[in-house]
Amino acid sequence: MTSSDSSSLSTQRHVAFDWGGVFTIGTFDGRSTDRVAERGGVSVETVRQSYFRHVRQLEVGAWTLPQFWATLQQETGVEFAYEEFEALYLSSIHDNAPMYAALAALPKTVRVGLLSNNYPVVSDHLRARPEFARFDALVFSNEIGIKKPDPQSFAALEEAMQRPAAQTAFVDDVQENIDAANAYGFHGLLYSHERHEAFEKELAAWLSV
Description:
Largest sheet: 5 strands, parallel
CATH class of the largest domain: Alpha Beta
CATH superfamily of the largest domain: HAD superfamily/HAD-like
Structural class: alpha/beta
Distance between the termini: 21 Å
Order of helices and strands: HEHHHHHEHEHHEHEH
Strand order of the largest sheet: 3-2-1-4-5
CATH topology of the largest domain: Rossmann fold
Number of helices: 11
Helix content: 40-55%
Radius of gyration: 18 Å
């Protein structure tokens, strides 16, 4: 490696993203609980009380998705089979097409990561998607046992990216996570669907050293 190559590596900037609310429109949890309630013939409030009481067990990988569903069934009285629940759950993902287009358009010299508070089965589903081949590093909370905004989750992202946090932007739709990313040393970029074009300009400006 020449000195110019080394200098380029030390100044090259990169980007990592959250998934829910960034690569999706609306909240995955909100849409899936709506659909479970409708299919099960119970109120959304009943489903959400149980769902959000226990969802952290999924986020940190303490429970499998079948375990989570069994508890949800017991507490809500919903009776349809796990296999149907899994299909319903995964089909609740509503892609944010402009963000996937932005991902595909990133220069090949830019390393791309993902840090997501996620769930078993869902993370496997995402990893298998063709669009996810563009990511160089995938960090899911359910696989490392730690969720944002814990600083250890950002340490795991930095390690997976194999680049310093200071050279990496982190994109999230939750201010608390942006604050945590900034505190760790990343360059936080708060995202909202309504400002997608402005976001692309902000990211392009960050990547253009």
